[in-house]
Design a protein that fits this description.
With 384 residues, the chain is α/β, with parallel strands linked by helices. It contains 13 helices and 9 strands. The chain has a single domain, classed as Alpha-Beta Barrel (TIM Barrel). An 8-stranded parallel beta barrel has the order 1-2-3-4-5-6-8-9, surrounded by 5 helices. Helix 12 packs parallel to helix 13 (366-377). The longest helix is centred in the last third of the chain and has 20 residues, at 304-323. The radius of gyration is 21 Å and the shape is globular. The protein binds (3S,4R)-3-hydroxy-2-oxopiperidin-4-yl beta-D-xylopyranoside.
Length: 384
């Protein structure tokens, strides 16, 4: 505890000194992540419903002060935007976009076509049978046109398709795939581009560092490009653990996507300290497990040794992102503080995890200062 407290106090003093010193004008004096990282990549945060509806003002203050980009953690997924066919619900999404505009942020739309958190009506008829490919195309088109069209010119980029490829490189056998085959992916990109020709369009996935999956995503990007479709980037979700994957595995994937001619974004970054059911467990939200106490080792406090390991791995990751900032346009954290992280409930409900940059008391962890310092001292390779 003592070591961390000392580091934290040191960082706190440093930040206060920087923020309070009107003469400090260079990057060493950066008082926020967005200021420090500004010429490298956007630094984003996912907003939950309490933030979007304005209830969690402490988190919102952090978002306004520290982050330059936002994405909605849930409220723009199809089950929320179109709970019944033709009945759209935009109240939360409208608030989310308005918040981004008021704060001059890069606004990201998440996500148009995804097998999870999609309403069941999307794939079935009145009798519960699978619909025809033609009807599914119509529903996809209508959903994408309505949603993307509503925010035309206001949302910078869309996660058009989420998680269509399995870790072994095969297509995920989702309802979209079962009914339409792999054609559902180019169609989604085509519809999104038709609905807002200026919006950036991304393919987003988890475990995107695994070789077979990485190669399949690269092939997908090439296929989309060969078809003449717009695809601007690959989103690497980045739900990782303190032990896995290695930064080298990540670096190879970043290089591979960049070599395919697209921007790379780290779109849902968090680093769990908790034991994982397996090394490459991933982030398919249907893969849940029963709570087991031995899988929840830090219910009250994170031991210093683990906090230090997390800190060092986080430093290594942000150092990698800074080194690769000619390829990376955005790093988005999947949440603001540990208290709200989805990792407390995935893949097991009711655990206590510590995966984000701000702690349960809304305080910056020492990593925040270290990221700012790393940005100030490393040579700039602007990537935006
Ligand atoms: C998660 C949210 O964080 C949770 O609140 C929700 O219950 C399930 O979805 N990959 C994605 C995100 O693309 O949309 C998921 O978000 C996490 C995995």
């Amino acid at each position: 505890m003592k070591i961390l407290t000392t580091i934290f106090c040191f960082h706190l003093i440093l930040s206060l000194a920087c923020c309070g010193n009107p003469k400090a004008s260079d990057k060493e004096a950066s008082c926020s992540l967005k200021e420090a990282l500004g010429d490298r990549f956007h630094i984003g945060a996912a907003l939950n419903i309490n933030q979007i509806r304005g209830y969690d003002t402490a988190s919102l203050k952090i978002v306004q002060d520290q982050f330059s980009s936002i994405v909605a953690e849930n409220c723009m997924k199809s089950m929320y935007l179109q709970p019944e066919e033709g009945r759209f619900f935009f109240d939360d999404a409208d608030k989310f976009v308005a918040f981004g505009e008021q704060n001059d942020m890069l606004i990201i739309g998440h996500t148009l076509i995804w097998h999870s958190q999609a309403p069941s009506w999307f794939f079935t008829d009145d009798r519960g049978n699978d619909i025809s490919p033609e009807i599914l195309k119509e529903r996809m088109k209508n959903h994408i046109y309505t949603v993307v069209g509503r925010y035309k010119g206001r949302i910078h980029g869309w996660d058009v398709v989420n998680e269509a490829i399995l870790d072994n490189g095969e297509w995920r056998k989702s309802k979209f795939y079962e009914i339409l085959g792999e054609e559902f992916i180019p169609l989604a990109f085509q519809y999104a581009h038709e609905a807002d020709p200026d919006a950036e369009l991304y393919y987003n996935d988890y475990n995107e560092w695994i070789g077979e999956k990485r190669d399949a995503i690269v092939d997908l990007v090439k296929t989309l490009k060969e078809k003449g479709l717009r695809v601007d980037g690959v989103g690497m979700q980045g739900h990782i653990g303190v032990n896995n994957p290695s930064t080298d595995e990540y670096r190879s994937a970043i290089d591979a996507y960049a070599a395919a001619g697209v921007k790379v974004m780290i779109t849902e970054f968090d680093m769990s300290v908790l034991p994982s059911p397996r090394r490459d467990f991933g982030a398919n939200i249907a893969d849940t497990e029963q709570f087991r106490a031995e899988m929840n080792p830090y219910p009250d406090v994170l031991p210093d040794s683990v906090a230090m390991r997390w800190h060092e791995k986080m430093v290594a990751y942000f150092t990698l992102f800074l080194d690769q900032s000619d390829k990376i346009s955005r790093v988005t954290m999947w949440g603001v503080t540990d208290r709200d992280s989805w990792k407390n409930d995935f893949p097991m409900r009711g655990r206590t995890d510590y995966p984000l940059l701000f702690d349960r008391k809304y305080q910056p962890k020492p990593i925040v200062r270290d990221i700012m310092d790393a940005a100030a001292t490393r040579e700039s390779t602007p990537g935006k």
